[in-house]
């Protein structure tokens, strides 16, 4: 079962890593999109850092409860900013997708770290 936990962390995190790298290489387009929704470009680099590095830490299982909570809040925030146009079927699907992903991060945050994690190793080192 520990392999499934790791696989879940990898699947949830991979979306954010890929999108974070994509944003980095398409900065101008991403900033324009953010500004269309009233989000200042000052949030661009913190967002990219959050989308790349926190998911990497989640994959290796470091501070999974805290980082899972942060990613849940981030995903909910993104959903509420960018996907509330209920006249658009695509936006509704994106909102529901983000809510499901946030739920996955909540599951990570709610569990003790499993055998295949740095958290487990550090906890049981003593």
Give the overall silhouette. Answer: globular
Number of domains: 1
Quaternary state reads single chain
Distance N to C terminus: 24 Å
Query: Low-confidence stretches at least 5 residues in length (pLDDT < 50)?
Result: none
Mean pLDDT: 94
* Topology as a string of helices (H) and strands (E): HHHHHH
Q: How would a crystallographer describe the biggest sheet?
A: none
Let me know the number of strands. Answer: 0
- Rounded to the nearest angstrom, the radius of gyration is 16 Å
Class from helix and strand fractions: mainly alpha
Give the helix proportion (percent range). over 70%
Overview features:
126 residues, 0% strand, globular
Q: Helices, strands, pairings?
A:
Elements: H1 2-25, H2 27-36, H3 44-60, H4 64-82, H5 89-110, H6 118-124
Helix pairs in contact: 1-3, 3-4, 4-5
Task: Give an account of the 3D structure.
- The protein is mainly α and 126 residues long.
- It has one domain (2-124).
- It is built from six helices and no strands.
- The longest helix has 24 residues, at 2-25.
- The radius of gyration is 16 Å and the shape is globular.
- The chain starts with a helix and ends with a helix.
- The mean pLDDT is 94.
